[in-house]
Each structure stands twice: as structure tokens, then as C-alpha cells.
């Protein structure tokens, strides 16, 4: 990731202060290292965290989307993490550094970052006193308190330890208002349905530089866009899913092996038939032996469902 190091001219009376730091406004998508917007010399001397902002700006003049990345030595050790919210960072500190005073940790830098794009003539000292839940939790601007798509069942609302973010930074689709990486389809932007064991969609688990892609996609959408199944040409898919965000491929044979198992627990024949049809579309035409074997099982199951429906 390219890191920008903007100049830090001191003493401007129009600049806000937070935790004793003189804050300089930054541009959209700007990034940097260390103070005042990221920890420095923590947890060990010489450690510098990386910060980055998105595009959305709150009415207070501060960025709504801001991110923190662990020092580079963590990435080299395979522990790279991106924190997209204050809560996820707080959970990480509590888990890995239980003896650390969390309040003192957040006092060592400024979580709030003012924007250059905010209109001039605003009293930044007054803005720095502006305290809202949104400014403290920049991704919590939706009524649901965390999901930008307003989905009250979104996994991003899970405050357990597993919610600590290890996902790659995304300023493309994830910068769009109303799009939530955790519960929206990357192609149609609609909320995914995690019923039926979650086999109507696929989540890209590909890892890039230690960070997981984490984007979701409806299988139906991927099929219509020729990004799933067996596709010739330059894409060259073989019973695979192609992620538009990170260009990674995911094998769909194992994905639909689970689908076939899930069919046994579904009470609705319509749901079973729908899942089987999707699996059939994904696997047909593949030259993989494993895909052929699974396709035969799906075809038998489809025949059984048709017989039970009296067709």
C-alpha cells in the first residue's frame, strides 16, 4: 500500500486539537503513518501504525470511514489486520493486550480525522468538541448501528471476538453509501440471504498480503455475469467462482458438496429444488472428475424431487 506523508505545519489556530495533538485536515483516500492519527512506538518502540481515510465526511467535518493497520512487522509475521471501526480495534487490544488501559491507548492518538473537503469558515475548535456516536464509530452511520445497508441481521453487528477485522482495505465498492461488505452482494448490491446454510451465496476467502477479501456474491448473480461455473475465453473458469474485487478463484465443487448435504435439512421442496438447480448450473460442463461425480448426485436428487412433486 502506498503511504502518503503530508506535511505537518504547526500552529494554525484553525486546526482542531484532540488528545493534545494539533490535527491537520487530510484529503479523501489519504493515508499516512503514526501520529497524530495512528499509534506510534506501540506496543514496542519503533512500531508505527498506518492510517487511511475513505470518502464519506460527517456533518462535523470529520471522516466517517477511517482505518488502522498494524505495524509492518505484524504483517511480516502473518498477523496483518485492518481495523475499520473503533470497536474492532478495542476488542483486539483487550484480547491481545489484556493489561493495557484501553482508554489510555486511545488517548495516545486521535481517532477523529478532519477533512480538507469540508467547507471553509467552520470553527474547527468547535467541531473538535462535537461528540456523536457516528464520529466515535465511523461505520455506524446507519440506523442499525454498524451495517451501512441497514441490515439488522448483519454479521458486522456481532461484537464477539470473531468480529475483529482481518479483511483487506477496499475503497471501491465498500466506499459506496449503503453497501456493506458483510451482507451485500458485490454484483447486485442487494442484501444476501444467509438461510439454507448460506449456500445461495459465496464469500471470497482469498488472502492478499495477509488480508482476507471477504466480499460476498449471490451465486445467481455470478452465473449471470459469467463469473461462476464453467466459462471459457479469457476467464477460463472450471466449476469455479471469480471474485470481481480481488481477481481470485474459488473452487465450487466443495461449496456445492455442502449444498447437497444442506438439502436434507430443508423442509421446503421449493427451496430444495432451487438449490439443486443452482448447483446444476454451476457444475454442468465441467471436466473435473469431482464435478462430474457431484453433478450426478445432484441430478439424482433433482429426479427424486420431481417424482415426489408428481412430475
UniProtKB/TrEMBL annotation:
Transmembrane segments: none annotated. Residues 1-21 are annotated as: Disordered. It comes from the Eukaryota. Its main location: nucleus. One of its GO terms (cellular component) is nucleus. The keyword Transport does not apply. It holds the Pfam family PHD_Oberon. Keywords: Metal-binding, Nucleus, Zinc, Zinc-finger. Signal peptide: none annotated. Residues 25-115 form the DUF7081 domain. GO terms for molecular function: zinc ion binding. The keyword Transcription does not apply. It is found in: Nucleus. InterPro entries: DUF7081 (IPR055508), Oberon-like_PHD (IPR032881). Residues 151-281 form the Oberon-like PHD finger domain. This is Protein OBERON 2-like. It comes from Dorcoceras hygrometricum. The lineage of its organism: Eukaryota, Viridiplantae, Streptophyta, Embryophyta, Tracheophyta.
